[in-house]
Design a protein that fits this description.
- The chain is built from no helices and 6 strands.
- It is mostly beta strands.
- It has a 4-stranded antiparallel β-sheet, with no helix packed on it. Strands 5-6 form a two-stranded antiparallel sheet.
- Strand 2 (30-35) and strand 3 form a beta hairpin.
- The model has no long low-confidence stretch (mean pLDDT 91).
């Protein structure tokens, strides 16, 4: 019987509020997350590090998505 369990690669830390949305690029190299702290963070999955912190929302970010090639991110907020 094959096991679906795998080790955790990284715990991505940096948001100061709850995370409400996460999206992963199709090649698995980049992730984006949106948070109650009103920011969107762009992550390197391999390194487990934050590449960019995007600001501008005036309220919590409730959803994020990446384009199929991972070059464009969109975010939705209750602002």
């Amino acid at each position: 019987e094959a096991s679906m369990e795998q080790a955790c690669l990284h715990t991505l830390t940096g948001h100061t509020g709850n995370v409400y949305g996460v999206s992963l690029s199709s090649d698995g190299s980049t992730a984006v997350s949106g948070s109650y702290d009103k920011t969107v963070k762009v992550w390197s999955v391999a390194a487990g590090s934050c590449l960019h912190t995007l600001t501008g929302h005036t309220s919590c970010v409730r959803g994020v998505s990446l384009s199929s090639d991972g070059s464009t991110a969109v975010s939705g907020s209750i602002d």
